[in-house]
Amino acid sequence: MPTVDNPTEKTLAELGVNDAQGVAEKFAEVRTRFDRQVAFDADEIRSLMLHEAWLGSDSDPVTSLRNFWVGRKAGVLTLITENWLKKSPPSLKGVVGKQFNELKTHIETKLEEQRKRIEEKTEAAALNREQVDLSLPGVIRPVGSHHLIRQVFQEIEDIFFSIGFSIVEGPEIETPYYNFEALNIPEFHPVRDDMDTFYLELPKGAKTPLLLRTHTSPMQIRTMEKQKPPVRVIVPGKVYRRDNPDATHSFAFHQIEGLAVDTDITFCDFTGTIEYFVKQFFGPSVKTRFRPSYFPFTEPSVEFDVSCPFCGGTGTAAAGGTCTKCKGAAWIELFGAGMVDPAVYGFVNYDAKKVSGFAFGIGIDRLAMLKYGIDDIQVFFQNDVRFLRQFP
Ligand code: PHE
């Protein structure tokens, strides 16, 4: 409530008013005061509240002002009714009543006008605040990029795609049949030792053990089971081995399997195809060579080497000294491959007398490391953006 002098807190007699003239003057006084206040906006009312030290209980100054004038309990209009109207001498009742009604209508209309005015102003201010400034620079949300491994997959897929291979994918959880047996690796064959791997824990009574595939070769079998020759596919994917992590080993890595089977595929087609691939991938100046090797599902089997792309196949670094990439060997071992062993055709009902073909299994991580000069396979799996950003 206001602490400044408020005439409506007193009766007319106390104010020394005893005729119609005096009544009109008092009402005019109140009305003038009201008119001044109702012209204010919210901020002005707030400073008036401070200035005149009548702090309404409402946090909103407009409501405070409203309560001050028309509040049911102690608003000015109620005070006038109580102190002036009810307590006026009978001779003045008519005048006071008339003046009161006029003032009441005036106050209510003006307060409503004020409310609307302030509301519109606040709305306009909000609209103004929320306006979008189209000239502001946008928020930059960086778009990620493909992981280097995915990029290398893509590169290799494109090369084989261009020479008529199609791409198939297969399950990472395999049965021993596809991962081993059908690839001519019977249960106690020693090469299984190299691939000693992750078996899944299965409920008791499960029909067949399951494992994380150790290579993409099971897809050779799955593809030939589904499809009659000619077959020309590559199989990109993840493989798993129980290897301890170091700079060249990881429990998960990536391969691309290749398989071509037809009625007249020779060793020449095989060498031509992978030489083409290697020259596309590393550049035309690299030289290639085969070394005899062994895989149960290829015969003959080879290791495929490329002349070291870093020292130009000299074994000597450009700055002198031994090339660190090939360790002076001048050659780098790339991947295993070979002509499909006829025994494999037996597992997929191909006629080994009529068809022949070749297969290869490229280690993607190794190839990516060679091509991009990366010396630790672990960086592919750590997902450090400082590494990834170098290959946008
Ligand atoms: N699967 C073999 C490995 O992972 C590679 C390979 C594939 C060899 C196809 C010959 C033919 O080591």
What would you say this structure looks like, in words?
The chain is of the alpha+beta class. The chain has two domains: 7-130, no CATH class; 148-388, 2-Layer Sandwich (BirA Bifunctional Protein, domain 2). It contains 14 helices and nine strands. The strands form two sheets. Strands 1-4-5-9-8-7-6 form a seven-stranded mixed sheet, with helices on both faces. A hairpin with a 2-residue loop joins strand 6 (288-295) and strand 7. Helix 1 runs parallel beside helix 5, helix 4 runs antiparallel to helix 5 and helix 6 crosses helix 12 (364-372). The protein binds phenylalanine.
What count of domains describes the coordinates? 2
N-to-C SSE string, H for helix and E for strand: HHHHHHEEHHEHEEHEEEHEHHH
Head-to-tail CA distance between termini: 70 Å
Decide which structural class fits the backbone. alpha+beta
Low-confidence stretches: none
User: Helix coverage percent of residues?
Assistant: 40-55%
**What is the CATH topology assignment of the largest domain?**
BirA Bifunctional Protein, domain 2
Ligand list: phenylalanine
Question: What integer value in Å does the Rg equal?
Answer: 46 Å
Q: What would the principal axes of the Cα set say about the shape?
A: rod-shaped
- Please give the CATH architecture of the largest domain: 2-Layer Sandwich
Query: How are the strands of the biggest sheet laid out side by side?
Result: 1-4-5-9-8-7-6
Supply the number of helical segments. 14
- Count all strands and give the number: 9
Q: Write out the CATH superfamily name of the largest domain.
A: Bira Bifunctional Protein, Domain 2
For the sheet with most strands, the description reads: 7 strands, mixed
**Residue fraction in strands:** 15-25%
Question: What is the subunit arrangement here?
Answer: single chain
Q: According to CATH, what is the class of the largest domain?
A: Alpha Beta
- Overall mean pLDDT score? 89
